[in-house]
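S1.2 Input.
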Amino acid sequence: MSLSKNSVAVVTGAASGIGRALAVRLASEKIAGIAVADVNETGLDETVKLAEAAGGRVSKHVVDTSQLDAIERLKTEVLARHGRVTHLVNNAGVALCGTFEQISIEDFEWLMSINFWGVVYGCKVFLPVLKAQEAAHIVNISSVFGFVAPPEQSAYCASKFAVRGFTESLRHELAGSNVRISAVHPGGIKTHIARNARVGENTPDNYKTLGVDFFDKVAMTTPEQAAETILRGIKTENPRILIGRDAIGISLVSRLFPKKYLRVLERLSGHKFHLYDQ
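S1.3 Output.
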């Protein structure tokens, strides 16, 4: 097991949601250090308070994970503060409202730069540091939308399928090394990702309201429950971590009904996935 009292974890997207909850949960494990990173400094300040209250030794890093030089700076800062990194959690992520025709190329690139390239940059920059440790672990956050691809989620699904494929390929490359790697596939988590979503360049404003309302109906799991599941996955070295009963069900349906999973999921859940046709 890679997690120990000597572990130092880097968690991106830690200003809220799963990232914050995981930082606090790691702090309760009394590991050697936790570096929390996000573009939202106000949110990070709150995360630091909560993690320190849970017993953690925490450093704060205001970082735009879509920028390679920012990730390189993060590595330098973390090593200067903590001396090592044993766990990397690439959690930073954003959402985008609109159909493919409504969103711009710039919208698409913005989302991919955070959701996908942020993961790639994190792994590329920190992997040499992780390989220098006795035991290490990478955790990349994908989604159930890395299994299924509903309409109006073209950019988000592209990023999360990409994270899944990248992580699985990297896991096979690292087989036999000291670095474990996990892809995490959350179902509906009660975070603000839908409320904070960007509205596409040509997307009607009311589409965001429809998306938020739908998300609030289907989100089943708290960030704290998600953090507990991720921590258990790290401890058991689980390469594929599913969060929530909905994630387990969606994973199963996507494999049993690869051509018509959307219709099956709509029938089983009672929810329509074509949100903007309502």
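S1.4 Remarks. The longest strand covers residues 179-186.
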